[in-house]
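Why should sequence recovery work at all? Because a backbone constrains its sequence more than one might expect. Tight turns favour small or flexible residues, buried strands favour hydrophobic ones, and helices have their own preferences. The token representation captures these environments compactly. In the example below, the structure is given first.
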């Protein structure tokens, strides 16, 4: 069955996205990471090693996210 995106409801689009994600995650090695991912990881590791990054406790982050989404 083929449907145009414009004809799908939000609920149908979300179901399709979930089905795609479930299928892709069955074999994560088949999903290539973009080049910038490695660059970003290296940059973050360097900031952590040099002490120029700041970190927060997970509970603090969750609370901050809850407050920002109200």
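From this structural description, the recovered sequence reads:
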């Amino acid at each position: 069955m083929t449907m145009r995106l414009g004809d799908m409801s939000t609920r149908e689009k979300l179901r399709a996205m979930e089905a795609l994600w479930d299928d892709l995650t069955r074999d994560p090695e088949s999903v290539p990471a973009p080049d910038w991912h490695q660059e970003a990881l290296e940059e973050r590791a360097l900031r952590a090693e040099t002490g120029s990054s700041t970190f927060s406790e997970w509970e603090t982050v969750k609370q901050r996210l809850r407050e920002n989404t109200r």
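A few observations help interpret the result. The CA atoms of residues 18 and 42 lie 30 Å apart.
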